Amino acid sequence: MAHITLPEGVPGIRSLVMYRPETGKHLYQLAQVLLRDASPLTPAERELIAAYVSHKNNCMFCMSSHAAAARCLYGDESAIVDDVLNDMQHSGVSDKLKALLIIAGKVQQSGKSVTVQDIDAAKASGATDREIHDAVLIAAAFCMFNRYVDGLATLTPADPEAYREMGKRMVEKGYALPDANGK
Amino acid sequence: MPHIEIESHLPGITGLLEYRKDSAVPIRELTQILLRGTSSLTEGERELIASIVCYGNECKFCTTAHTAAANLLLGENTTSAAVLKDIHTAPVSEKMKALLHIASLVQKSGKQVTEDAILAAKNAGATDLEIHDTVLIAALFCLYNRYVDGLNAFTPADPAYYETLADRIVHHGYTRLPQGYDHLKNNPVH
Known about the structure:
The complex is a heterodimer of chains A (about 180) and B (about 190).
Chain A: H1 12-19, H2 21-35, H3 43-56, H4 60-74, H5 79-87, H6 95-109, H7 116-124, H8 129-151, H9 160-173
Chain B: H1 12-19, H2 21-36, H3 43-56, H4 60-74, H5 78-85, H6 94-108, H7 115-123, H8 128-150, H9 159-171
Helix pairs in contact in B: 1-2, 3-4, 3-6, 3-8, 4-5, 4-9, 6-7, 6-8
């Protein structure tokens, strides 16, 4: 049961943004800007960074929903998502994305864990300042989202099918505030 | 030196928020409503919650800035120092102690927040909304601290810099200055 009284039957972050839409609208806008709006990284790559950080934070709701969105966006190459979550170092992502995921993983531990060597490796594999910035900010943002969702013990569906639908919606509709029924 | 090219006259978070302005808008607006919007927690109390999270994350820039803001709002320097040293002996209400404890758990991980910690806050009179806002403020500063340190933003050593910054976030707030920040180019920070 959630730590505070939230709309019944609504999972994860959606129950929180319905509880307090004044803060929720900015949280969803941030997700939309970071994961969908203009960036040199594709929406699929950005959802993968979000899923990877949520996985490292053990946030089942955010990991499952963003992994589902990433699988949807990768289409025929959706297996890459599970490869990264299982063993990022040996996954088939590009060297640049691997370097950015390493940075995101460091940010998950602490901002201070990111070293000059990590940044140099990303730049050597072709990452621009803007790509490094976006990877760090997405990782930092999911350290917020994960703590918000788990810190208030929100409803986490156990059925994988629920996340498949969520992922599809996140790809088709983006991050729009739910209506009063949680839809 | 920052890991990416940031304008040199804008230390800490300011340079990052100016680097990418479209992501800065929701971050600034969220902070403004959480720390300055209508709440049954005072602005000083909310800055103390921010401070204890920044301190737990060892983010020097954010800790110095938000303790300075708390000091300005509270009109003294002793409470913030006592809170960072030991929540239990700090001169704050039982409710604030329980909320600060929840914030320090969120700093480690959302999963660390226990039923007992929530119950203690409720028994001390905390409302659902106060608990909600405490968790979200703590989570938000986990974003800020990682953004600032993850990109190695410049952290001025001069205490006067933080006095000026605290004055701005207390009297103007967290939204972008309408005139931007070009005027700071004439005042190099160290």
